[in-house]
Design goal:
mainly alpha; 244 residues; 45% helix; single chain; two-stranded antiparallel sheet
Length: 244
Amino acid sequence: MSYPGGQQPQFGQPTPWHQGPPPHHGQPAPLGGHPAPPAYPQQGYPQQGYPQTGYPQHPGPVPPAHGATPPGVPSGPLTLPGPGALPTLLGIALMVVAMFALPWADDVHFLDIYRATTTDALKQAPLSVQLAGAYVTLLGFVAYVVPLLSTLPWTLGAIRTQRAARWLAGVRRKPLSHSSFTWFRLVYTGRALIPVVIHVTGVVLLFQDSTSAMGPGPWVMIIGALLALAGAWTGPRKGPAMPY
């Protein structure tokens, strides 16, 4: 049998016309003299059924971080310091002056009456005297603390979140909003009315037999409680985050 070029191929070598291109580094040698397929897809030709790498993906919407205000919802406090803070502060200041500085009868101050009131003497006294003693020893101080701890924070805009509205106002079933703002004003006004009733009742019981001897202290105390009541009704300003 004759071969082209007169040369007989060596044993184990492919014939010249079946010899393919030399294999690349890392590719297996061709079998049967046929070129091996490429190990990786050719660049520029997308493969069917597989996502193409190197192309930017379109991310979905990113959820807001924990505790962040969702988009479109106004941020900020529910309430801001309002005009009700001025009469409340003035009323609390007047109550302090009445309790510790001004005389209640001649040269007798409120703390003098407090020291002179003993539990043993009240046990044998009539009911009206016992109630007057309860005002001097306990209820008068409670009536002073209520505007300080309730009315003043309300008028200064302490309710900044719905959680604060539930805990400070004690209103569990109604969130603070424009529609429920009047209800919150009524709640705080009702609280501020309690000190007024306590002070008026206590003063009447103390001076029921000697009204002419009453000094400026009781009057200033009642005026201060009324100013705090007016401040509670006036309330704070509505903040930007207060819903409708």
